[in-house]
Specification:
This protein is mostly helical. The chain has one domain. Helix content is 91%, strand content 0%.
Amino acid sequence: MNRKTEGNAVLGLTFSFMVIMMTLSMMRGMGMEDSVKGLKVILCGLVFFVMFGIPSVVMMYLNHAELGIREHMLKLELQIAELAEKQTSEHSNAESSRPT
């Protein structure tokens, strides 16, 4: 596994854990006798979800976008190298066919 795949796996596990914790806090909050305390439990779960769950999703998308950009840049670099090689070979052919 490479670093990007491992990083995305960790971020995915973090997000999954946060979804499970949010679900459990919602279930616990709705089951409480006192609705104010239940709302506090749900709100705390939501705060932790926003603090840890959403940034992990954003980081996954950023990693994916960075990988795509790097791939496109490598393709462009390859095309430039091929064009330079083609131009060099054409230039050397033109010089060798020129009469002295």
